[in-house]
Structure formats: C-alpha cells, structure tokens
Amino acid sequence: MALKVYNTISGRKEDFTPVTEGKVKLYVCGVTVYDHCHIGHARSAIVFDTIYRYLCSKGFDATYVRNFTDIDDKIIKRSHAENIPWQEVGETYIRSFYEDMDALGVLRPNHEPRATEHIADMIDLVQALIDKGHAYNIDGDVYFSVDSFRNYGQLSGRPLEEMISGARVEVDEKKKNPLDFALWKASKEGEPSWDAPFGAGRPGWHIECSVMSTLYLGNPFDIHGGGKDLVFPHHENEKAQTEAATGKKFVNYWVHNGFVNIDREKMSKSIGNTLLIRDFLREYHPEVLRLFYLSNHYRSPVDYSGQSIEDINTALHRLYYTRERALEAQKGKTFEERSYPQADDIARKFTEAMDDDFNTALALSHVFELSKEINRMVDEKDESAVALIASAEAVYESLAATLGLLGDDLASLESREKVRHLARMGLDVSFVEDAINDRVEARKNKDFQKADEIRNMLADKGIMLLDTPKGTQWRIKTSVS
RNA sequence: GGCGGCAUAGCCAAGUGGUAAGGCGACGGUCUGCAAAACCGUUAUUCUCCGGUUCAAAUCCGGAUGCCGCCUCCA
C-alpha cells in the first residue's frame, strides 16, 4: 500500500512519490539556540523523528537534515543581556538541545548544519536574487521583493492583496512593499557581521534554510517540515526566495505539526506557561511525552494537562508490563520458531495506519491490541503457545521501536519513578526495605494485622507493595494526584 | 477585518459515505492470608444543534452555537 502524506500546500493527502525512487530527502526546521527547549519543541522533534523512523522502516534510504539557527536577533539580545559572546549563547543552547533530544530518544539527523557555517552560500544566494531583480539593496539592507514573485502566498493560501489589506505588518518606509522581507541586515554596532559584496551585515532568518536544505538535499527535495506557525512567513518566504533564484520547484511535500496548549491555553513565554523539556523529565519518563504526542494526530493541536499525562503514564506502563510478562513466559523454555498470523495481521494494520499520513494514534491502537493478545496467550499458560508468544512479542517490539517506544526496560522505567518519588517524599530506599522486611517477618508469623499496618503505612506515602512469588516488591502508585 | 481548524462515552482520543479504534477511569472476574499490582471481561444504538443530499452520513452540502489557531518573533 502506498504512503499518503498531507501536503500543506494543497490542503490534502497526496500519494507520496519521492524525487528519486527508494530515497527520501527530509528537511525540518530546527531551533533558534537562545534558550532551553520546551515541550512544544519536543513535539516537533518527536513527530519528525517518528516520521523519519517510519520512512526508514519502510526501506527508504532517508537523508534527514535539521538545522540550528545560531545567528539571530534573539541570540544577540541574549548575548548583550548576559554580557557573553553570541557564539557562546549558541554553544550553550546547542548543548542543552542535545541533552534534551538524546533523553527523549530523538535520533540524530544525518546532517545538522548551523547557519553560521553557510554564510558564504547565503551571500551567493542573496547576490543571485539581486542579479535577477528579485531583491533590492537599501542602505545595506537587502530585501526580497514579493511583487517580483508571482506565486507569493501560494503555500499559506493567501493572495498578496489580501495580506496587504489585512496587514498588521509594521510599515517600513524603506520597503517597496510592506511584505518585503530581509534577506540581509546591514551591519550594526555591537553585532556580528560578515563582509559581502552588497555590504557587511548578517543574514535574515529565512535565507539559511533555503541554502542549507538545497545544499544537502538537492532541488527540489521531498519533504520540508516544521511547526504550523512556520507556514507563514518563514516557509512562504523560503519558498519564494528559493524558487525565484532557481526557477525550479523548491519542495514537493510540506508537512507541519500542530501546536501544544497547556490546560487549553496557548503555551507562550508571555503567558508564562512554558514547560521546559528538562523540567518535564524530572517528573516523567521521556517515553511518556512521546506516547502522549503520538496518541494525537500530528496535525491537531494537543492539550497538555496533568491528568492526560498521568493517564498516558499508566498506559506506557501497560506496554512495558506486557513485554515483561511475554519475556517471563519464555524464560528457560526451548521451542521451535513459529510465526503467529494474528500478530502479522496486526502488523499489517499498523503499516496501513502509518501509511495514511502517519496516523500514529491509530497505529498505537493496534499495538495495544497486540498487547492484549499477548497477555491472553500468557494467561492461558499453555506450554505449546510459548513459540507463538515469542513470535508475537517480536512483532510487538518492532512496532513499538518504529514509534520510538519500549526503548528502555521496565526496571529502569520504574527505578526512575522510585528515585523521583522517594526524593519528593524525603525518604530513602532503606526505609522502604526495612519496612518490607518487617512485614515479611510478620507474615511468616501469620501476624497479618501487623503486616497490613505496614502496608497501609507505606501506601500513605504513595508506595504500594506487591506480594509476588519472587518475594515482596514495591512500586510507586502511578496516579497519585 | 481576512484566512483556517476543531466540536465523538465520565475524561483523553482515532475514524472524512457502509453501520463507532485505542488509552485512562468505573464496574465485574481471575489471583491473593486479605489486598494491591498485573491480567481478562463489560462499559457510545450513537458522534454540539437544525435542515438537506443519498439505498446508506460522525463522515458530503447549507445554516446556527461554542472553542481555538494564523495574519507579528514563535515548534
């Protein structure tokens, strides 16, 4: 079955046909490195990471590029505010970005160019646009003339006239058209600048992506992605300047992910409700965030709330418990390999869902179906079914891996929670272990009253006890609120 | 003002013409000294409302109401 991708420019799902058969060229706008990343950045990263993983699993030879914007107004502002070199601001937050992304299990793209590594190429592109009459120079600022490009507004679906009439754009007397945007900003005191034939200065925001995407991926290339907010003006402008310069189509499929709201409110710095990735990770396992995002369609807005995250946390545990039970059932048993048709059938449905514009929510429902199927077989305790369990479990793992899930092990998933919880309660492990030992002793003596007292005492602290054949184990209540 | 999106069970959330995925919760059960956890089972005759098209609509068309996003730096 063919892959279908929703293309922003046409507003519908289209059959995916790569420029070169068997290969996919993917470019995703990365971050401007002037601050730590929040969970909105994480959504974009996780969505495209999943798309990338899926394309690879389908057998495409994928080239994935994600840039760093390391020169920009906000970076300069930060460097002035903290009185450190602007390069250092970039370095600091690139490091922070990697810490967060690695923790989230987001795979590294094939290329991660930084804007400042490609200034010379940007200068060439700006010059080419000037030469072709698509750009003009005023006092060292170079602007792209939107009137010179017939298809301006094509991506965001608004004709030029409309944008101007409803315009809330600042009126700049220098510009021929209020919508004209900067390709190059003239050098200013105290700001970094590079020499160029049209005057020293620094690049505008959009030019870097035009240069780096085509340089690494060719022209046109297959998929260009980013957050929905980038459609206008960033991607519209990238498209205009690239197509004006090359005379060729820039991108075949535009893919944009929806935004993250927190408690039904837009997450933004001005409202003060941004949640940093690192702060989230102090509370939950990284796959909780991934599962949360993948449970929603990537194009829809998603509403983050404490309750949703708790629900998802419980659901993630369920996925891990299933694998644990399946492995337990196989332990020490020998069996001949057998395929399990029901699992293959579920894998097929999973692929169908993913082929339909990366419907991860539907794909996940099939993973949960398989989880149930595996549990059912384990419950039957039928020795002859072990081979089937093994086979189903292998399918289960591979589907989960495609979504970037089940990359950890249960012990680690739980130990993170334990450490976190104990720290919050001001307790330590020995306290819990001593209590458990006392209770084991009490139970041995059939002093169930005392045993129950200890259980209740720990339960009050959010710690649950499990009497298993392997002894008494403990866990953190997953939904304490 | 212009453009666009969304409204599905107690909650979260898929589904864009063929008779409602999945998760959480709740309830019932297995297990257990009792529990808990885990697991299994049950849980929307119906998709905001009103019209229309169709053999057939959550899905298409028209209208109403409510919520949200973009048009300005933003994932």
Task: Give an account of the 3D structure.
This protein is of the alpha/beta class and 481 residues long. It has three domains: 18-257, Rossmann fold; 277-402, Anticodon-binding domain of a subclass of class I aminoacyl-tRNA synthetases (Four Helix Bundle (Hemerythrin (Met), subunit A)); 410-476, no CATH class. The protein is 48% helix and 16% strand. It has helices spanning 39-57, 73-82, 86-103, 119-131, 160-165, 207-217, 231-246, 277-283, 286-294, 306-330, 341-355, 360-380, 386-402, 410-425, 429-444, 448-460; strands spanning 4-7, 12-15, 23-32, 61-69, 135-138, 141-144, 181-186, 201-203, 221-227, 251-257, 260-262, 265-266, 302-304, 463-468, 471-476. Strand 9, helix 7 (231-246) and strand 10 (251-257) form a beta-alpha-beta unit. Helix 1 (39-57) packs across helix 9, helix 9 (286-294) crosses helix 10 (306-330) and helix 10 crosses helix 12 (360-380). The structure holds one RNA strand of 75 nucleotides.
